[in-house]
Amino acid sequence: MSKGKILVVDDDRLVLATLSYGLTQAGFEVIDADNGDDAILLAREHRPELALLDIRMEGLTGFDVAAYLREYLQTPFMFLSAFADEATVAKVKELGAVAYLVKPLDISQIVPAVEAAFARSTTPVPTAPAAAPAAMAEAFEAPSELPALDMTALAVGVLMHRYSLPRDEALARLMSLASADGHSLPEQARRIVDALELLARPGAR
Fold first, then answer.
1. Sign of the C-alpha dihedral, residues 158, 163, 164, 168?
2. Of 158, 166, 178, 184, most Cβ neighbours within 10 A?
3. Count of CB atoms within 10 A of residue 42's CB?
């Protein structure tokens, strides 16, 4: 059973193939496009539940595609880009992306972020009343002021990917770990995401 339908758009064919393969292996139904025009046509035809967009492409940019998805299809989207300058950040915020991931990232980092985006859009994840949402982008060393998912949703995504769990079982496992370790749910989520970031650093493999 598919975990969800995602549109992946990148004009670098190698990156596109890597993302598409990795997300397919993780259980998603992937629709891919290497340009903005095709992306919009495919989105109209297949109605994905989420879009992962590169920003700088020939012709229509990721921003153009995002604006169309937001206005006409109400499809949530996230950006994957090597650029984090002020103008790019401002445009990302203006468009209302659910997340902004800064390259270079490998598929082991991207899949949990996608899992978290689906978790946030389809299932409310409880958090402790005293806990403030933490920026998902911050976990990947992206600017903390960017649109982001809360840390609990991201940790649920990590557990879903790592243990091939459905969303409700991943959340139950996170709650069980928090209870066993004597941490609040957000604190335990932060520990899991910090561990993911540590393992993803160069030389950690």
1. negative
2. 158
3. 17
